[in-house]
Fold this protein.
Amino acid sequence: MTELKEKSRPHNGPDTQAVTFDPLDKALINLLQRGLPVNEAPFASIAEALNTTEQEVLSRLNTLLAQGVLSRFGPMYDAACLGGAFTLAAMAVPAAEFDHVCEVVNGFEQIAHNYQRNHRLNMWFVIATESETEIATVIEQIEAKTGIEVLNVPKLEEFYVGLYLPI
Amino acid sequence: MMQANLTETQPGPVQSTLPMPPGAPEASLTQEQQRQLRVYLEQGLPLSPHPYREIAARLATGEAQIMTQIKQWQEQSLIRRLGLVVKHRQLGYRANAMVVWDIKDTDMEHIAGQLAARPEVSLCYQRPRRLPHWHYNLFCMIHGKDRSAVLEQINLLTRELALEHVNKDVLFSYKAFKQQGARYSQRKTADDRA
């Protein structure tokens, strides 16, 4: 098929302009956020549901990946069940040191997300590791490298997880 | 079909030679194959007509075994969902509010249950207070396209659930510095794709 999104480049910065989507892109993104079927030809099933072809679905998905709209096409795991460990952590970083501290924190491969937020505790990040002890180690190392205390607020109970972002 | 291509990348024993653990004919993957399957899934499903067959070839097993294993993980809720992981900012969801509440322990189940049932709430977790710096013990995420609309939603749900008396704070994110899928397998094993 012809490449509809040739002008789009991969997005480097996380805050770049949102890409625009045509109706098929939108339908695809909405449907696939609900999950991919587990059968011999899952993209053909999706194509059928959207009244298009398997080729078209795959081509669109490749383009969306290249544009950086999709971060991945795969499973959302329950980390704890798989033996991994997860936590949410926060730091109160002085404005002048923010960029430097951010670099230090993101330098740890165990950091999965890192957001600046409007609060005295202005840096919030997720630590994802193999074990609880590794979480403690990462926190100690961040504290040692930055001199800033890390607030560790692991999940105690989950009441709902259902991130679905229709477009 | 991409059979030729696959055998080139990953030659291996044919599926019929795989040992079948006694009593578990449905889950015929070895521990090591299960681990490798998780690694492949984390890296992202192949965007090809038969993604499960492709993974099966890499693991020297059958497509049916791969699909059975994935379905089993889904039934056990180890995999919540197999699909698209989006970058919400790229979809125009730029207002990402973390609403944090200071809920009395005895009210937790009830209030968290009510918040979790609201369609605009996408995640709802209880987390520990860290006194004296942090008083909040219930975290909800609300994603929207602009802040004023999200604040309006928060006001509305606060009123409708009669939570005006509860201390809360709204932390908007204004910059994402890192947003990537978490990896649960060791990096060294995640890199072993041929």
About this structure: The two ends of chain A are 24 Å apart (CA to CA). The helical segments of chain A are 23-33, 42-49, 54-67, 98-106, 132-146. Confidence is low (pLDDT under 50) at residues 1-16 of chain A. The longest strand of chain A covers residues 70-77.
